[in-house]
Amino acid sequence: MAYQIKKPGRTMGDQSYVVEATKGLGITFKRLFTNVFSKPENKKIATIRYPDEVRDYPERFRGVHRLTHRSDGSPRCVACLCCSTACPAQCIYIEAAEYEPGDPRAGYERYPKVFVIDELRCIFCGYCVEACPCDAIRMDTGAHVPASWDREHFIFDKETLMSIPGRDGTYVTENPRHEPGDPTHPGIDREHSH
Ligand code: SF4
Ligand code: SF4
């Protein structure tokens, strides 16, 4: 049996919206005059003059992405594509490449020749950061993507992503990384898998 929900009764005053609109405008003008003529400490303004003023964001705020560096300045990213696979907005594009012969990383891991994030398409879910096995991509910058009228300014390439520091001002991460050739490295590569 279908139930019908009765409409609430309305007076002519409700139907015309004049009374409620007048009440709303009364609140608006009361706030306006309070804020224009009050001393600064008595103003009731919840907004700030962004971008001239910025608020401090919480420590776990997901800001614009950055790509972390190794100690030699190269990207920690190994172009495994985990982040781009996990990204629900499909806004990460990576082209992987092999290190040059002679580089201890050659034959063991790859690097991102191209790494692009479309920051305007990103929904800032943080899945890419969670998916990364190398702590190579982070959103701990504590900063917005800068405002712009130009669509192209939201396409962040590898160089841009590597030029953004974390909140601590560094381009690295405290999580250790065991580089191929280091004594701490497990020593596994494509020729020596065990
Ligand atoms: S934060 Fe989410 S939407 Fe943005 S790039 Fe990472 S996975 Fe994609
Ligand atoms: S950022 Fe991390 S998950 Fe993404 S390709 Fe690089 S290593 Fe893989």
What does this structure look like?
The protein has five helices and five strands; from the N terminus they run ααβαββαββα. It has helices at 12-16, 18-37, 82-86, 127-131, 158-162, and strands at residues 66-67, 92-98, 110-118, 137-138, 155-156. The strands form two sheets. A three-stranded antiparallel beta sheet has the order 2-3-5. The chain has a two-stranded antiparallel sheet with strand order 1-4. Among the domains are: 14-46; 66-162, 2-Layer Sandwich (Alpha-Beta Plaits). The radius of gyration is 27 Å and the shape is elongated. It has 194 residues and is an alpha+beta fold. Bound molecules: iron/sulfur cluster (2 copies). One iron/sulfur cluster is lined by residues 86-89, 91-92, 117, 122-128.
Overall number of strands? 5
Radius of gyration: 27 Å
Average pLDDT, all residues: 90
Q: How many helices in DSSP terms? A: 5
Helix content: 10-25%
> Strands of the largest sheet, in order across it?
2-3-5
Strand content: 5-15%
CATH fold title of the domain at 66-162: Alpha-Beta Plaits
Specify the structural class. Answer: alpha+beta
Head-to-tail CA distance between termini = 69 Å
Order of helices and strands: HHEHEEHEEH
Biggest β-sheet, characterized? 3 strands, antiparallel
The kinds of small molecule bound in this structure are: iron/sulfur cluster
Regions with little confidence, pLDDT below 50 for 5+ residues? none
Q: What is the CATH domain class of the domain at 66-162? A: Alpha Beta
Name the overall outline: elongated
Architecture (CATH level 2) name of the domain at 66-162:
2-Layer Sandwich
